[in-house]
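Q&A FORM
Asked by: J.P.
Topic: structure of Lysosomal dipeptide transporter MFSD1

PROVIDED:
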Amino acid sequence: MAGRGEDENLITEGDSLSGQDNGSAGARSMPAICDPSHWSHRIVVLSFMCFLGFGSYFCYDNPAALQTQVIQDMKLNTSGFMQLYAWYSWPNVVLCFLGGFLLDRVFGIRLGTIIFATFVLVGQIIFAGGALAGRFWLMEVGRFVFGIGGESLAVAQNTYAVNWFKGKELNLVFGLQLSMARLGSTVNMNIMGWVYDSIKDLVGSAGPTTLGIALMIGASTCLLSLTSALVLGYLDRRAERILNKEEGKTGEVIKLTDVKDFPLQLWLIFIICVCYYVAIFPFIGLGQVFFIEKFDFSPAEARAINSVVYIISAPASPVLGFIVDRTGKNVLWVAFAIVGTLAAHMMLAFTFWTPWIAMCLMGGTYSLLACALWPMVSFVVPEHQLGTAYGFMQSIQNLGLALIAMAAGSILDNRGYLFLEVFFCACICMALIAAVMLYFVDLLRGGDLNLSAAARARLLKSVSTDSE
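REPLIED BY: S.T.
REPLY: Here is the structure written out as tokens.
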């Protein structure tokens, strides 16, 4: 997670790392853009960091962007279609615990990033090849392989960010990386349907061949990510040699024995996380047909509105993160975000108001919840347990997404979209109940989850003084 007080301007030069042995005259004599201690070189590195995750996020929602085409060309029902999301999540139930270990102790961050980017590319190629061959089971294998690399690649991306920007512009860098990830999702939602239609015109008909070619074109973004991983590995190795610094570490020390010591507040945070996100990502995965059937949208309009959550999240996440940092009151912000998302789902379920209102509301509240919820983990567990806590949180989130993806497909096949929306509303209500319980449990136990930013700063200063 991004640290606090690290929001200095990206274009600053007062960070020449003069305290380090940076190869002295050699580093100072090279052009600024080639000097790893100079801001202009770090901007080059940052650009490759951003593109590192672009392909993964672009291809993750390929099924959502081509929902109608996948179901028709592969002759699936909705339950079978949602297996593509379930198979992505299954490996990450385990890899959330192992990914950081593999990056730190086995491969190293540079080789590990390249390996996981390769998994993403190979998984997407298998996925596209399964469509070309008309073999849905092969598409499922591809999504499983893709999932092995996807989440761990995000861990590697964050590790590179901390290694290059810690103590300088880390908050801004995390915000830019998140914005690029959302840009990848947005471009996918709005372009893959057009790509499919263009290929259909060239081939002369729809079908597995057209679908496979479209997905293979999508794999080019994963090739971009792999290229970025290779360049980052070279630049990081070069900086290590010039500046005599160590290779980056994820800092995710996982000890499963820590789980028994987790406080009640943390378990409530886990419940909020699972119950909230299972009403967002599966909905987006199924949203295109929903907007076509209920609101008579064209496929292009449906794809556009289905991407609104990601479009809003890209610029809103850094801004809302800054607001939450400055105000505190995390539990209240979480509760507000949950209520807003519940209102959005209820509008979609029970009204015929223009869905742009509901989707814009959902995009804003989705961004707000992420900014307020994830930092709370660091408030309730000691630092040495943070790796385990975040790993466990991601693990049960992926488990919930896998199970709910299958359940959502089955509900839609048997009961329709109205019943599915009621189901999503029920999940959001469970998250709201957990948030209310979290507020009172934290209050009774004298916790600091809902303190203002000023009060939390005074508390941290007092604790620091006492420890000294």
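FOLLOW-UP: The longest helix spans residues 208-243.
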